[in-house]
Design brief:
Blueprint (H helix, E strand, L loop, with lengths): L6 E6 L6 E5 L11 E11 L1 H8 L16 E2 L2 E11 L9 E7 L3 E7 L5 E4 L9 H4 E4 L11 H23 L7 E5 L4 H12 L8 E6 L4 H7 L4 E4 L12 E5 L4 H11 L3 E6 L20 E2 L2 H12 L1 H22 L1 E6 L1 H13 L6 E6 L2
Parallel strand pairs: 10-11, 10-13, 11-12, 13-14, 14-15, 16-17
Antiparallel strand pairs: 1-2, 1-4, 3-5, 3-7, 3-17, 5-6, 6-9, 7-8, 8-9
Helix pairs in contact: 3-4, 3-7, 3-8, 4-8, 7-8
The chain binds NADP nicotinamide-adenine-dinucleotide phosphate.
Length: 367
């Protein structure tokens, strides 16, 4: 058992600006058969996790790690160590990678234990995509075992999505388009995709990649050197619009999306909705001209690619993509370590409001 006090970062499900640190029972509740207790060593926090909160009720993210009435624990990706086990095949001291609550401790109901890892088989998690329920043993994670844990917790789920978007677009021959536009181009998921689109140009149709961002982030996005053109959101009407175009939107900003749909008109051949970094400007349900935005859901694409390629090829390809993107990422962003409950609360607010800016990748630990 751990001597640290067990704590949760709790978020008000209706007003996600309200956050608090609360004591957790998961450090001391007696384990049931098949359960393991873990200390969460560190986890990443970015707009991706804010999206889990902003879409928590709509996409059931709050149901993965239930909390007391009206409050939720946001899911985060990270590393955790088993400190107590009532599951045969899982030993104290093992480190795993996967989806945890933003907490210091967690109890998982382990099942389907294999050399590679295990699943959380709690009945309430059965409805979720398998990637959300699987935990990978670090010792068996050949491609990533020796990588920095900090870069992994900060970037792995984001660059996994970048890898999947690049593959998805290529598989569909870019829907016949020669222009690909990103909304929220400074986000890690967007620029990871742009870096891959740049690296993988050979043997593909000709395309240019345009990044749209806020005025404050223009210089940062230009410095990444992975977009052919970088513009702020207000400049959409000035972009050339005579080529077939795909919009890949990480912002969810309805005004920006509308300006893209209106400006590109019939030449907008596909509109992909990946994220909601501008989570206060969604305008859900508003009708737009042109193609209906289609949700890109990484867990579904992950499963599609896994089924197509098998574990080994998929993991090899993803690791190659990871190395390519990391050259861009590590030159442009720095890791920011956040330790302890007060610092976690402050960082959460900074990431939520966008004040933290694009050039930091946060690695959090309750300490
Ligand atoms: N669909 C999927 O399966 C999937 C998978 C992974 C990620 N995603 C989504 O991709 C998006 C990007 O995630 P990320 O972690 O890569 O982002 P990130 O690196 O944390 O993005 C930071 C950027 O987001 C914008 N931003 C953040 N907070 C803001 C605020 N309060 N107001 C206005 N702009 C704000 C700013 O970009 P600009 O100034 O450039 O707008 C900022 O530079 C998220 O919505 C995430 O959920 C989706």
């Amino acid at each position: 058992m751990s001597s640290r006090p067990a704590q949760d970062l709790l978020i008000n499900r209706k007003i996600i600006e309200q956050a608090e640190i609360a004591d957790s029972e998961e450090g001391s509740l007696p384990l049931q058969e098949g359960q393991v207790r873990l200390v969460i060593d560190r986890f990443g926090l970015s707009a991706n996790n804010i999206t889990y909160a902003a879409m928590g009720d709509m996409m059931n993210y709050w149901d993965i790690y239930p909390a007391r009435d009206g409050w939720g624990r946001i899911p985060v990706w990270g590393f955790a160590d088993i400190i107590e086990s009532r599951c045969s095949g899982l030993s104290v001291g093992e480190r795993v990678y996967g989806l945890f609550p933003a907490s210091s401790h967690v109890i998982l109901q382990a099942g389907q234990v294999s050399g590679k890892g295990f699943m959380d088989v709690s009945p309430h998690r059965a409805v979720f995509a398998s990637i959300y329920n699987s935990y990978v043993r670090l010792a068996a994670d050949h491609h990533f075992r020796n990588e920095s844990h900090d870069w992994q917790v900060a970037l792995r789920p984001l660059f996994m999505t970048s890898f999947l978007i690049d593959a998805f677009l290529a598989q569909h021959d870019f829907f016949g388009a020669n222009t690909i536009i990103f909304g929220s181009a400074s986000s890690k998921t967007a620029f990871g995709t742009a870096a891959l689109l740049k690296a993988n140009r050979q043997n593909r149709r000709d395309y240019i990649v345009i990044g749209l961002t806020s005025t404050a982030n223009l210089e940062f996005v230009k410095s990444l050197d992975c977009y052919d053109v970088v513009q702020d959101y207000a400049s959409v009407p000035k972009l050339g619009n005579d080529a077939k175009t795909v919009y890949v939107d990480m912002s969810g900003n309805i005004r920006v999306r509308k300006s893209v749909h209106v400006h590109f008109g019939e030449n907008l051949v596909y509109s992909s909705w990946v994220g909601v970094t501008h989570w206060t400007k969604l305008g859900l349900g508003i009708q737009l001209p042109g193609p209906e935005p289609v949700l890109f859901f990484a867990p579904t694409e992950f499963q599609n690619r896994m089924d197509e390629l098998g574990d080994d090829v998929f993991n090899r390809q993803f690791h190659a993509a990871w190395c390519q993107i990391n050259n861009t990422a590590q030159a442009a962003i720095s890791l920011r370590h956040v330790e302890g409950d007060t610092a976690i609360l402050q960082a959460y607010q900074g990431i939520l409001s966008g004040a933290c800016g694009p050039s930091a990748a946060h690695v959090m630990s309750f300490g």
